[in-house]
């Protein structure tokens, strides 16, 4: 199975402060860092750190070399990434003393993705290959349809949520990965059981994975539902926790682990990542995750 992550690449500008500013308030922050990021990049790195052979497609602008170099140094194949004129996407991220964040996104090159570019990339893939998508780039609906028509295994993390997601073809998705907020907005349900059931009804079979932050994670398919608790850690920065979860979960599943084992592995990986500032740079390798699991299970 070939694995393609088609998604966003961002430069993350991270400002750390004791508490997030209220409306009209000006705060001075003592720490400013630049990190590599973007949900697509983070998820590609997570899959790769978990042990997968991954290619990334997406667009960077003239200032995007650091993202491509980082991916390459991690082991992600970068030959499909397209360069455009203008700025690379970036995120302004405010992190508070509890590791919680607020974000402003400038999409930049992530919104330069065209159907022609998508077709060119998908030509290299066939039935049975895996594609993983998010919702920070243009052409996501087009990619969902085309990849499904080809018979690829389609995994979708519809994040960050915007109302346009409600018009996208959920029936083309095999594995849907959502957090509570995304799941609620898409399904109209609040509790995990009716939420996952409503989402599964809108998909053609397949599976739903629901992350619940400190409450753990849920997997549901036609055979039923399984839930695992979260690991208790002191969070420093939760940026990228969901992306880390997504990569580790998918890798575990395609390697033949049970959904429950895959959830546990993914929860462990994301528990580790929140204990350090940044996202992609702090995604742990498989050995570290296995060591954590041995110590905590
Ligand atoms: O999920 C975290 C990511 O969301 C950050 O790296 C930021 O770039 C935004 O895309």
Low-confidence stretches: none
Q: How far do the termini sit from each other?
A: 30 Å
Average pLDDT works out at: 96
Put simply, the count of helices is 9
Overall radius of gyration: 18 Å
What structural class is derived from the secondary structure elements? alpha/beta
Order of helices and strands: EEEHEEHEEEHEHEEHHEEEHHH
| Strand neighbour order, sheet with most strands | 4-1-9-10-11-12-13-14
- From the spread of the alpha carbons, the general shape counts as globular
Beta-strand level of the residues, as a percent range? Answer: 15-25%
Q: What ligands are attached or bound here?
A: alpha-D-ribofuranose
| Helix content class | 25-40%
Q: Tell me about the largest β-sheet.
A: 8 strands, mixed
Strand runs, count: 14
Account of the 3D structure:
- It is globular and about 50 Å long.
- Helix 7 (241-254) runs antiparallel to helix 8 and helix 8 crosses helix 9 (286-296).
- By secondary structure, it is α/β, with parallel strands linked by helices.
- The chain is built from 9 helices and 14 strands.
- The model has no long low-confidence stretch (mean pLDDT 96).
- It has helices spanning 39-50, 65-74, 115-122, 140-150, 180-187, 192-202, 241-254, 259-273, 286-296, and strands at residues 3-6, 10-16, 31-37, 54-57, 59-60, 82-83, 89-95, 101-106, 130-133, 153-156, 175-179, 207-211, 217-221, 224-228.
- An 8-stranded mixed beta sheet has the order 4-1-9-10-11-12-13-14, with helices on both faces.
- The chain binds alpha-D-ribofuranose (RIB).
């Amino acid at each position: 199975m070939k694995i393609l992550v088609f998604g966003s690449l961002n430069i993350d500008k991270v400002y750390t402060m004791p508490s997030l500013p209220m409306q009209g308030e000006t705060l001075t922050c003592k720490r400013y860092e630049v990190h590599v990021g973007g949900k697509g990049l983070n998820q590609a790195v997570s899959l790769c750190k978990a042990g997968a052979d991954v290619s990334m497609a997406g667009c960077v602008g003239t200032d995007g070399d650091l993202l491509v170099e980082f991916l390459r140094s991690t082991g992600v194949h970068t030959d499909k990434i397209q360069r455009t004129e203008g700025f690379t996407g970036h995120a302004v991220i405010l992190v508070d003393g509890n590791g919680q964040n607020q974000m402003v996104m400038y999409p930049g090159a992530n919104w330069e993705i065209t159907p022609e570019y998508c077709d060119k990339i998908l030509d290299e893939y066939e039935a049975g290959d895996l594609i993983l998508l998010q919702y920070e780039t243009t052409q996501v609906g087009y990619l969902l349809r085309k990849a499904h028509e080809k018979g690829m295994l389609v995994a979708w993390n519809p994040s960050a949520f915007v109302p346009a997601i409600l018009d996208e073809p959920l029936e083309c998705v095999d594995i849907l990965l959502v957090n509570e907020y995304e799941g609620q907005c898409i399904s109209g349900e609040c509790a995990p059981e009716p939420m996952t059931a409503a989402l599964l009804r809108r998909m053609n079979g397949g599976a739903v994975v629901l992350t619940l932050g400190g409450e753990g994670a849920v997997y549901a398919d036609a055979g039923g539902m399984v839930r695992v608790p979260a690991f208790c850690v002191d969070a420093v920065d939760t940026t990228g926790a969901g992306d880390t979860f997504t990569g580790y979960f998918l890798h575990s599943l395609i390697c033949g682990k049970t959904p429950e084992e895959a959830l546990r592995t993914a929860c462990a990986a994301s528990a580790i990542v929140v204990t350090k500032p940044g996202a992609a740079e702090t995604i742990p390798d498989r050995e570290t995750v296995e060591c954590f699991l041995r110590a905590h299970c």
